[in-house]
Amino acid sequence: MAIEQINVKALTYIKPNVKRLYLGLLLLGAIILLPKKTQAQWKEHEIKGGWVYNFARYVTWPEDVFKKNVIVLGILGDDPFRGVLDDIVANRKAGGRTIEIRRGNTIRELKGSHILFVGRSEEYRMDETLGEILKYRSYGVLTIGDGIEGFCEKGGIINFNRERPTFNINMQAATEAGLYFDPKLWKMAEQIIPNNPNPPKGPGN
Q1: Burial (Cβ within 10 Å: 0-12, 13-18, ≥19) of residue 115
Q2: Residue 43, C-beta contacts closer than 8 angstroms, at least 6 positions apart
Q3: N or C: which end of the chain has fewer CB within 10 A?
Q4: d(CA 77, CA 106)
């Protein structure tokens, strides 16, 4: 969809920071993925779902982390997408790979995920959760927090902001995980967050 086809007046009815995410999706050519509504009717969870899919499209993983031609997207704890993300990834690919969504309440249940979306229900034990990720395998895992305080500072890679649906990126953590971000993506981040010099350690360390 070309920019000139967008009803610009409709954007004035979207909260300013939702508009930022909407425009970002527009520039990535991903608006067609969202439900067929007017721009003013899109909800935050729908736009977030579009962004998570685009993270899969615009991040490059090391080839050796894939046993099959599938990107496993694990959702840990609360799922805020209300089925929208399932609809978006159905019959679509990212980087030539299909996307399989799994849900669980422990890191162990979601072992093998290439994308790990961490719900807000996990905020109370975030140090433990990030420590478990380090224990099982942080290499090749794109971690995404749903507005979790300190997520990027503690070693998470992407975090949506709670009060405004923009996102921050920890590029150092991404590099350490062996992930390459297309510049189109990280330039749309609200902030690039420095990594915590003392990240949480895995259990038993």
Answers
A1: buried
A2: none
A3: C
A4: 8
Distance between CA 135 and CA 150 in Å, rounded? 20
Per-residue pLDDT tens over the stretch 40-96 = 456 788 888 888 998 999 999 999 999 999 999 999 999 999 898 999 899 889 999
Residue 53 tokens read as 């899919």
- Quickly tell me which residue has 């982390």 as its tokens: 65
- 197 pLDDT higher than 60: no
Widest pairwise Cα distance in the chain: 56
Residue 3 CB neighbours (<10 A): 9
pLDDT category of residue 193 using cuts at 50, 70 and 90: confident
Q: How many C-beta neighbours within 10 Å does residue 133 have? A: 24
Question: What is the reported pTM?
Answer: 0.79
What pLDDT, on the 0 to 100 scale, is given for residue 47?
Answer: 80
In the chain, where are the structural domains located? 3-192
Dihedral over Cα of 29, 34, 37, 41: its sign: negative
Backbone angles phi, psi at 51, to 5 degrees: -70, -40
Whose CA is closest to 165, among 23, 47, 86?
Answer: 47
Measure the CA–CA gap between 76 and 120, rounded to whole angstroms.
9
3-state helix, strand, coil in the chain (%, to 5): 40, 20, 45
pLDDT in tens, 4-18: 222 323 323 334 454
Tell me the Cα Rg of the chain. 16
